[in-house]
Amino acid sequence: MPRTELTPPPVLFAPDRPTPGGSGLVAEIEAYLATLPAPARTPVPYVCPLGSALRPWYAGHRVPRSTLLDRALRRPPRPAPVTAAEHLGLASRYIAAHGWLQGAMWDADGRVCLLGAQAAVLAHGFGTPATVRTARVQLMEVLHATGRPVNSPDEYNDRPATRQSDIHRLLDRAAARAARLGL
Known about the structure:
This protein is mainly α. Helix content is about 45%, strand content about 0%.
């Protein structure tokens, strides 16, 4: 098969040749754009191509550990000290990790209601019953301040119109209020 020479396609437009309008406006614009500095690269957050590691709901808090004396006396470890604000944040994270429920404290799948989340945080060794009582007072204060008069936070949890996002918002507002008050 004989070899043929490839010819380039005809140039339909060249910036140095005047266009039918004859002004050379495109060449002027390109020359102006070439004098401008290169746009700055905007930094983007690093995203690991392998994904992110799952963090437990209690991340950032010291997990209660049994001491030798605790094991010898067969008693539970001393609870980790948390404030009421931290307790409310942990309850919100516990609901996010395990799921939310209405009408019962917990179910077989591990989902919990607001009271169940507070009980689970306490049972895992974060805070004391006094911390939970202070946190529940803050929940009631926020409920009444936002125009939702109820007898308990659990009644608000079980209302048909309440959604999981409402519970998280309530916990966040109560935690912010408790932190402002130093509780």
